[in-house]
Write a structure and sequence with these properties.
MetI-like fold, 11 helices, 0% strand, elongated, disordered C terminus
């Protein structure tokens, strides 16, 4: 049972904020006062009892757009992070265990992909392919898996030469057992720490793509696209673009606070101990 009194204040704040963001994303249609693309007022109306965050550049309720934007942003970034970690960690662990030509070929291919700036690569690919949600998830996940691969391979290479792994080989265990039962549990700490960073990178990457017009397409709402839609209002002192930007920052901070806390809790688990 989790004792809330033993959780550090920073981690507790991160948990509360992250939970609020997640619940908002899950129950968006139930809690949003208006439809995502419904025009309900004049352009850039100020805060009011009817529109708590005002309206956007064409008169849509900004609070409703923020709620639906949370759903789209977290959904795409979350699935892209799952894809990048699944692909990157499995390939990284496999390269470290198999070694030889497979390790060399995979590492050089990953080096080639990492030599190209991620944003430029994403812009080139998405300018050719249709900017659908599935395309965004695949492109973001594949590009981000290179970073996960490098970390996973480095961690697995250190664990692979430890005594408990050699003992598993002497028992006749196969590569699948060594990867998933010996290496993976002992590599969780650095992977958990990286998970928070990769998720936030996915949020920022999606926001940048949407701001440049190649991410989530209107009338769908995501926070990066909302910044683009309302950026002209900043000149007139209208905060409509700053609200989604602040939400991105709050999400980044809260997730990293939780990831740091989980890392501290799992540090004692790595220590080179294998599964019995």
């Amino acid at each position: 049972m989790l004792d809330l009194r033993r959780i550090p204040i920073a981690a507790l704040v991160g948990l509360v904020l992250s939970t609020l963001f997640l619940l908002t994303a899950v129950f968006a249609p139930l809690i949003a006062p208006y439809g995502m693309a419904e025009i309900v007022g004049d352009v850039w109306e100020p805060f009011s009892a009817e529109h708590w965050l005002g309206t956007d550049n064409i008169g849509r309720d900004l609070l409703s757009r923020m709620i639906y934007g949370a759903r789209v942003t977290i959904f795409i970034a979350g699935l892209a992070t799952v894809l990048s970690f699944t692909m990157g960690s499995i390939l990284g662990f496999t390269a470290a265990v198999v070694g030889g030509w497979f390790d060399t070929l995979m590492s050089r291919f990953v080096d080639l992909l990492m030599s190209i700036p991620t944003l430029i690569f994403g812009l080139v690919v998405l300018s050719v392919l249709p900017s659908t949600i599935i395309t965004l998830i695949l492109v973001m996940g594949l590009l981000d898996s290179t970073r996960v691969y490098r970390l996973s391979r480095a961690v697995a290479a250190d664990i692979n030469v430890m005594e408990f792994v050699e003992a598993a080989r002497l028992r006749g265990e196969g590569r699948g057992w060594i990867i998933f039962r010996e290496i993976l549990p002992n590599a969780l700490s650095p992977l958990v720490a990286e998970l928070g960073l990769r998720f936030i990178f996915a949020v920022l990457f999606l926001s940048a793509l949407s701001f440049l017009g190649l991410g989530v397409q209107p009338p769908e709402a995501d926070w990066g696209g909302m910044v683009k839609e309302n950026k002209d209002g900043i000149v007139f002192g209208i905060p409509a673009a700053l609200i989604p930007a602040g939400a991105i920052a709050a999400l980044a901070i809260s997730v990293n606070l939780v990831a740091d806390w989980i890392l501290n809790r799992t540090t004692d688990l790595k220590g080179g101990r294998g599964n019995v």
